[in-house]
Amino acid sequence: MMRLMNVALIFVMAGTSAAIAQQRPANSTSTVPRFDLSLGYSNIRANAPPGGCDCFDMNGGYASVDFHLKDWLSIAGEFTGGHANNISMLGQNLTLLTFMAGSKISYTGHRLVPYGQVLFGGAHGSDSYFPTNTSSTSSASSWALSTGGGLDLNINRRFAIRALEMQYLRTALPNGTNDAQNHLMIGAGIVIKFGGSHEAPPAPLLAQQQNELSFTCTTNVANIDQGQTLEIIGNTMTEPDRLDVNYSWSSNGGTIEGSGRRVTINTTGMSPGDYRVTGHASLVSSPSTTAECEAAFRVHQHVESTQTSAALSQADNAENEKVFHENVQDALFDYDSYQIRSDAQVAIDHAAQYLKEHPEINVMIGGYSDERGSAEYNLALGEKRADAARKALIADGVAADRLQIISYGKEAQVCTAEN
Q: What count of Cα atoms within 13 Å lies in the side-chain half-sphere of residue 74?
């Protein structure tokens, strides 16, 4: 019997290898349904009561039902039946029925679909002789265990041929000796597919991962007076994430100062008008992977009023600074958030009223974060916080061209407590 089991395992392995070698991409014949129903013929090389030898064949059939949990995993149920005449010198017959259920794994998504399964349930024998230590009966029942696999050939999305199924079957019907039987079942049949079907995932393609880069840039203000410094902020996203990026900048007006993702333009001597700054980003690991961004800004002619000069005179500067910070206070944020809190809104409302009463004052709003997280992430978070405060001041009536923003990220911190 062990020799037959080894031969069966060799056949199953060979069939699985052939199926994988001949796999095809997923198409209309390789969809995975919700249910499978299979009917077919089976032959059992039986080792059944009353003897312990593998000495006769049983012919019969099987019916199985699969419920697909995933493309590759199913719950399987199977019923088999077989009959043989004159199985020993006593002249008795044997009818053997099994009913089992278990799990099934399939290599779906191809025309040839190998599978393996492990089933457990019960067995019932009848029309035979089942001796025990004290008596004998013509029928008996026991547990049954089956393990094996097979190969299906998909014809279309509703039908397939079960080209081969081989299983090892273990039963424990009384036989007067060890009450154990080992069987080899071989079968073939048809498969009918029911229920809504979905495409199995296609076989994976081995390909080199492609680098991707996206690049956007913004200015801290859209309008600026002559002589003031304009800040340009670039933001990149890479695929895969966290790749190193080189930056370069150009403008049709002014002088670019600095390098990296944040640079400035000195507008001294620039004529009033509309200008544009262009950023260029490329991956350090793949210089051919590039992206560009553009941001527009407008330069206004600077007019210095007598009131402004008086307000910012050296003598009054310290006092003005003190009064300013008494009325324009910090707006604090929750951890990893740029949503305006209720206490921050109170501070912003008071600051807006003060700024409307002092139209000569222009404000630079700084955004900060704590030290947790990467420098790149915290620069972006600080920028979002500063922009949120700017928008809240604008909503309270402060002119947009009086407000600029800058992000310090975690390089300069307002609060160092991590709570």
A: 26
Nearest in space to 130 (alpha carbons), one of 181, 95, 173 = 173
Dihedral of CA atoms 28, 34, 39, 43 in degrees, nearest 10, equals 100
Sign of the Cα pseudo-torsion (394, 398, 402, 404, in order): negative
| Neighbour count for residue 206 (Cβ, 10 Å) | 4
Q: Using an 8 Å Cβ cutoff, are 177 and 52 in contact?
A: yes
Residue type, 121: G
The C-alpha angle with vertex 52 and arms to 99 and 145, in degrees rounded to 5, equals 25
Longest dimension (CA), the chain: 127
- Provide mean pLDDT across the span 203-230: 73
Q: Which residue has the tokens 């330069």?
A: 299
Domains along the sequence of the chain with CATH = 2-199 (2.40.160.20), 211-303 (2.60.40.1080), 313-419 (3.30.1330.60)
Q: How far apart are CA 171 and CA 396, in angstroms?
A: 84
Give the other-Cβ count within 10 Å of 350's Cβ. 15
Average the pLDDT over each of 18-32, 63-77, 292-306, 311-325 and give the range with the smallest value. 18-32
**Which helix (H) or strand (E) element contains residue 6?**
helix 2-21
3-state DSSP assignment of residue 416? coil
